[in-house]
Amino acid sequence: MSEAPTRRTAQPFISWAGSKRKLLEQIKPHLPSSFDRYFEPFLGGGSLFLHLRPSSAYLNDACLPLVDTWRAVKRNPMGVHREATRRPLDKVSYYEARAERGGGYLQRSGRFIYLNKGAFNGLYRVNLRGEFNVPWGAPKSGFICDLENLEEVSRTLNDADATITHGDFADVLARSSRGDLAFIDPPYVTSHNNNGFIAYNEKIFSWSDQERLAAAARAAVSRGSYVLVTNAHHDSVTALYPDFETIVLERSSTLAASKEKRGRTSEVLMIGRP
């Protein structure tokens, strides 16, 4: 059985839109005291996974370069660190790295982390050709990543014998069963919680996918899994989870272009208990 640790361990090595790192303190009180396997179908930066350090984990994401980077860190954190930090984090070097293509798994993973640190707001976006095209973000420091943390991330992944996949969320959730914990954090934005939520979010995660996700989450609970779902604070979303407890989470918005447009926003944590 895996139990939530009380000490700080590895930290996320990338910035990712929708990260739950700043919401962990609000989420932690709603975690089960123990569980068997851990499932996370939308891995992103992996904040909760790294905090929990489970003994068994199934991790998944729809972004293949992100999945490949997690796999590389698990396999060779020193090599990833070497590639990620081999050039300075400045505008000229950033655009040179952004124009590069191919390379081995260490080169690609190191470049992914490097570009993530230099990109505007840590965004990940590609054009129609699948090429990363986020502009230089002028970060306040030249920090990219540190080897000690990558090695701790690698240990956490290997201790969990983590299976890291690139695929549909439903395929991962379908493997969960009695005694497991599933943390589900799909892509969504909160800026349209009260106005045009469905139409706006259709661009990043379709409403039909929201419905499929809710069905998969409810099925996991029916099999005996403890399920946590984060999503936008909107009635149409919570209506998809009629038997789940709903907790409102509050955070600061960080994706607006200017500080003046950033403020407090709310999200929901929906809890399905077997």
UniProtKB/TrEMBL annotation:
PROSITE patterns: N6_MTASE. Its EC number is 2.1.1.72. Gene3D superfamilies: Adenine-specific Methyltransferase, Domain 2, Vaccinia Virus protein VP39. One of its GO terms (biological process) is methylation. It comes from the Bacteria. Pfam families: MethyltransfD12. Belongs to the N(4)/N(6)-methyltransferase family. This is Site-specific DNA-methyltransferase (adenine-specific). It comes from Microbacterium arthrosphaerae. The lineage of its organism: Bacteria, Bacillati, Actinomycetota, Actinomycetes, Micrococcales.
